[in-house]
Write a sequence for this structure.
């Protein structure tokens, strides 16, 4: 039940895009068309769900104060590598993206054909690094960080898909010249985000 | 040289024209002082990453340039983060993860890859400063609107009389999106740029 609540909270209430503004760059660029949005959304769910628990393990077994106890024994108790966290997280994400890309290419060429282009984009997607940083800041357990990673990714996918659908519909609308493209997309995102505000406080 | 400096601030502004780095730009704009600190942090990282990448541009192998750039940027961000924690602890608590997210800010990566890899140190330095300021300009502009209408203050000083009831929407996420949309509209109406 705790996990369901966490999932609902990170998909709807604390949506990566609509309330933390993370991953906006690729969201704005890709949501022009529906097909790529599905691809990017799926890739983000996938990578975010893998990277958050992996970074959890790195934080708890390598970086935290005394975390190296399992290798070095007593000597390790005063070693604190937390200052390396950012480099470690981003390196892990870049490496995981590369790894996931190779695995998908080997085992599912059709999935690779759909997702392949988006995987490199994801290494610098703020929402993946953001999920890892929030995981560290809020001291989640392993199970929590897995659920949090997956549902953050799902929230991103939901937001980008709904935006792509709306942009598809307004293609033929007569938008004022200066507002076309980026401007109207920002305002629409504001309206979607306002709608999502009504989820705040929901608990099961 | 003038063009390198003035372009990123107005016509080629990284946020409103190139649509880069919007991620962190909106989250720290509830209060003007947060936006100013973020601008300094961003300009510092952007300038020094541009200088470092430009110095190393002839020795970085093309195939691993992204990881080299990421490492340089992450190191600079760690410096900024530790500096804020030491000298402005309250501020660093409020900015929470958003200082760290400068690492994945597309402006820094974009300038390092597109500009510093091809240009000499002096031009890269100017480009870094100018892009930092162009980013900061939009950031502070959004923050001024949000703080003024959301809480009736600027930098903590009351501007509107006490009778003014703050517009709560401005302090929440939708306010930021809509204000940025309107700023983009205003700027594009002036420059005459139309997206197709």
């Amino acid at each position: 039940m705790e996990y369901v609540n966490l999932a609902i909270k990170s998909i709807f209430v604390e949506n990566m895009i609509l309330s933390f503004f993370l991953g906006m760059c690729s969201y704005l660029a890709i949501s022009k068309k529906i097909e790529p949005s599905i691809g990017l959304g799926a890739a983000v769910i996938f990578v975010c769900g893998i990277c958050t628990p992996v970074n959890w393990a790195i934080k708890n077994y390598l970086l935290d104060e005394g975390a190296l106890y399992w290798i070095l024994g007593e000597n390790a108790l005063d070693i604190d590598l937390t200052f390396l966290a950012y480099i470690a997280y981003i390196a892990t994400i870049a490496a995981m993206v590369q790894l996931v890309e190779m695995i998908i290419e080997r085992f599912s060429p059709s999935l690779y054909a759909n997702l392949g282009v988006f995987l490199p984009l994801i290494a610098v997607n703020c929402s993946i690094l953001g999920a890892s940083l929030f995981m560290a800041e809020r001291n989640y357990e392993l199970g929590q960080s897995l659920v949090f990673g997956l549902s953050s990714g799902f929230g991103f996918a939901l937001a980008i898909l709904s935006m792509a659908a709306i942009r598809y519909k307004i293609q033929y609308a007569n938008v004022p010249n200066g507002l076309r493209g980026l401007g109207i997309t920002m305002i629409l995102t504001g309206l979607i985000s306002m709608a999502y505000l009504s989820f705040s406080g929901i608990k099961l | 040289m003038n063009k390198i400096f003035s372009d990123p601030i107005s016509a080629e502004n990284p946020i409103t024209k190139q649509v880069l780095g919007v991620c962190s730009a909106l989250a720290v704009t509830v209060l003007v002082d947060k936006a100013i600190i973020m601008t300094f942090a961003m300009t510092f990282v952007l300038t020094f990453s541009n200088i470092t990448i430009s110095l190393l541009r002839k020795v970085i192998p093309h195939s691993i340039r992204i990881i080299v750039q990421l490492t340089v940027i992450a190191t600079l961000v760690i410096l900024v983060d530790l500096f804020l924690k030491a000298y402005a602890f309250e501020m660093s608590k409020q900015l929470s993860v958003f200082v760290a997210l400068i690492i994945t800010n597309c402006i820094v990566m974009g300038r390092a890859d597109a500009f510093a890899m091809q240009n000499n140190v002096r031009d890269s330095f100017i480009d870094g400063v100018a892009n930092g300021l162009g980013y900061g300009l939009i950031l502070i502009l959004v923050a001024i609107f949000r703080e003024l209408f959301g809480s009736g203050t600027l930098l903590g000083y009351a501007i509107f009389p006490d009778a003014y009831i703050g517009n709560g929407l401005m302090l929440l996420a939708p306010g930021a999106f809509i204000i940025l949309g309107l700023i983009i509209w205003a700027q594009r109406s002036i420059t005459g740029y139309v997206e197709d």
Q: What stands out?
A: Chain A touches chain B at residues 18-25, 28-29, 83-84, 86-87, 90-91, 94, 123-126, 128-130, 133-134, 137, 176-187, 189-191, 193-194, 197 (CB under 8 Å). Residues 73 and 146 of chain A are 28 Å apart (CA to CA). The first helix of chain A runs from residue 2 to 13.
